[in-house]
Fold this sequence. Notes:
- The chain contains eight helices and no strands.
- The protein has helices at about 5-20, 20-30, 35-50, 55-70, 75-90, 95-110, 110-115, 115-125.
Amino acid sequence: MIKWQEDWAYNKYWVMAHSQACYEQIRLLAKDNMWSEQKEAEFEHLLAQAASQAPTTKTLTNAYQHVWGYFKKICTPQEKQTYLLLLQKLTPQDDELGPFLSGLTNKYQVTYLLNSRLMQEAQAQS
């Protein structure tokens, strides 16, 4: 993977959890797989912009639902039930879902998520 692709993979769900608009703009930057210094500068600017925005229930829900996609076919019925319960009560102030998904990431050793900023930060919370 090229460095910018690694940086995007690392930050993808974290950006999504902070700002859907920044996520969409970065996704468009990355779309054609052609990277430049100008795109790198825009990428860094959008990361900083996302960092300045606190996650909302809506943005966290969206990001966690994407992460959940890695587990929905391999998890136990109890894990699915826990996911649904934690999703229902999710708020930025009461986020038990992030640490739960981080635990599943470790349990199932999902490499992409192990290298994800969102899951690494969620693990630090637990």
